[in-house]
Design a protein that fits this description.
single chain; about 350 residues; mainly alpha; about 0% strand; globular; disordered C terminus
Length: about 350
């Protein structure tokens, strides 16, 4: 939802959220939190299967499972964009008697369509994108390819070695901050890879700390989680450096997962679970809503009041589409694809609370 609000407000500049808080235009950092969280969760589910060695069968089964998880919705969103592009050209031809063909290269091109089919668009997103947010799932898939190889290494590494790896990951992110002027909204090429892979690996490393019970009793308290959330909210509000905010995501995840007090009940309540369920669909489909609305409404020129109404309407439409998508595309598509790929689940662990 943070990403959605960021994108919608960015394209409707009359709202000016930066006059009140820096948190909205820091919304791109939600992707960084996602990379860390993804590494944590994937390690939780597959740690036993890859703990000691990687067999070809387990590697293939893992990759098939990840494809079944992300591909049905990804391909559906891609086809929605392609169908809309074709419909626009058909309408233009009907009205004017001519139309511009889909380009061979560049954004929303035939080459980009093929790149999206095999999920490599994140390697050069400026030239290969159709659904812009999908760059991150492309690089996420790159992290999936490497994860089974890194998992045994982390398992065998001692506390000192893990501390060294953690320091190295921070150094890589600090180098990225230096390269980009502390602007982590990098979604293209080398900088995007330097953003994704260290954060995903940091999530795996964070799971080791969780499993070893580091500061478990204190982290399980509401005070720990509230302290981290309050500090994070403050840094976002004052538009603190991106690197400082990103470094707070691991303790945020750890205190949230560890919590056994009131906050745990809140985080496991029905509305939050529902938002968690639809979050992937919301992430991939909200850009389609923006894409369609922008074709019919000059959103960049709307006054403040109308802009707020349009943003609220687009959020409502996006959430509705995501809810439908979760049930009929994500869940059904995953089940169908898992059956076709012959995926078994020998490695899955109990779910996180």
């Amino acid at each position: 939802m943070w990403v959605v609000i960021f994108h919608f407000c960015w394209h409707l500049p009359a709202i000016h959220p930066e006059r009140y808080t820096g948190a909205v235009y820091k919304g791109y950092l939600a992707v960084d939190m996602f990379f860390v969280l993804s590494g944590f969760v994937i390690t939780h589910v597959y740690k036993e299967g890859f703990a000691r060695r990687v067999t070809s069968w387990r590697y293939k089964n893992f990759i098939k499972a990840r494809v079944a998880r992300i591909y049905p919705l990804h391909i559906t969103a891609l086809l929605l964009f392609a169908a809309t592009a074709m419909a626009e050209r058909a309408a233009t031809y009907a009205l004017k008697g001519s139309w511009d063909p889909i380009p061979l290269v560049g954004e929303r091109s035939l080459g980009g369509f093929l790149a999206n089919l095999v999920m490599v668009q994140g390697l050069w997103a400026r030239q290969l994108s159709w659904n812009d947010p999908s760059w991150s799932i492309s690089l996420e898939f790159l992290a999936y390819l490497l994860f089974p190889l890194s998992c045994p290494v982390l398992r065998r590494t001692g506390p000192v070695g893990k501390a060294g790896i953690g320091a190295l990951l921070i150094a890589v992110l600090a180098w990225l901050a230096y390269r980009t002027g502390d602007y982590f909204n990098q979604w293209n090429g080398t900088d995007a890879i330097l953003r994704c892979l260290p954060e995903f690996l940091a999530g795996s490393l964070l799971y080791s700390a969780y499993q070893n019970g580091v500061c478990a009793s204190w982290l399980a308290t509401d005070g720990a989680l509230v302290t981290v959330v309050a500090l994070l909210a403050l840094l976002l509000h004052i538009s603190a450096p991106d690197l400082a905010i990103v470094l707070l995501f691991p303790p945020l995840i750890l205190t949230a997962v560890r919590n056994r007090a009131y906050c745990a009940q809140l985080l496991n309540s029905a509305p939050f679970i529902w938002l968690g369920d639809i979050s992937y669909s919301l992430y991939l489909l909200h850009w389609f809503v923006l894409f369609v609305i922008s074709d019919f409404v000059p959103v960049a020129r709307l006054p403040f009041g109308i802009s707020l109404s349009v943003v609220a309407a687009m959020i409502g439409v996006s959430v509705t589409l995501a809810t439908i998508s979760f049930r009929y595309i994500e869940t059904s598509g995953r089940r169908w694809l898992r059956d076709r790929l012959g995926i078994r689940r020998p490695m899955a662990a109990a779910g996180l609370r």
